[in-house]
Amino acid sequence: SLSGCPRATFAGKKGKLSGDEILNTKFKTSDVLENDEEIKQLNKEISELNESNSEMEAAMVKLQSQISTMEKNLKNIEEENKIIEEQNEALFLELSGLSQALIQSLANIRLPHMEPISEQNFDAYVNTLTDMYTNQECYQNPENKDLLESIKQAVKGIQV
To answer: Is 0.70 topped by the overall pTM?
Structure first.
């Protein structure tokens, strides 16, 4: 019955529609039930969308947290790299100073089968010196002993 429908009773009270006209209007009980089912379905979809939005927001917060952590880690790594670069630069300057001091100290000493020490042959000269001091038993003749002693005297004043 339409007696419970607020629209039907309101229209009936005003006397605008007769009982038959009320039944023929779009406010029939079946229409109200269909609209009620649609509303329930829409409410269900709204609930599902709200739940999905909540999950997406939680995932977004988690991603933002991870991004923030990664940015902090990156900043720390960049600071560490800067410190390492500064240390490397200081070590390079120290090495450059030591190599210049070694070149100056050994400028007058000639190794067998080598040109006098210079920046161009510095690595080869140092490798030869290293070999001479590592394998001293190979350099036991008096000439080589004098050479090793003169090298020791030449580099004695270099501060490392």
So the answer is: no
79-100 burial, b if ≥16 CB within 10 A, otherwise e?
A: eeeeeeeeeeeeeeeeeeeeee
φ/ψ of residue 78, rounded to 5: -65, -40
46-98: pLDDT as tens digits: 999 999 999 999 999 999 999 999 999 999 999 999 999 999 999 999 988 88
CA distance 150 to 154: 6
Query: Are 29 and 35 in contact, with CB atoms under 8 Å apart?
Result: no
Cα 65 to Cα 109: distance, rounded to the nearest angstrom? 65
3-class SS at 12? helix
Per the structure block, which two tokens stand in for 149? 């002693």
From 108, 121, 119, 116, select the one nearest 154 (Cα to Cα): 108
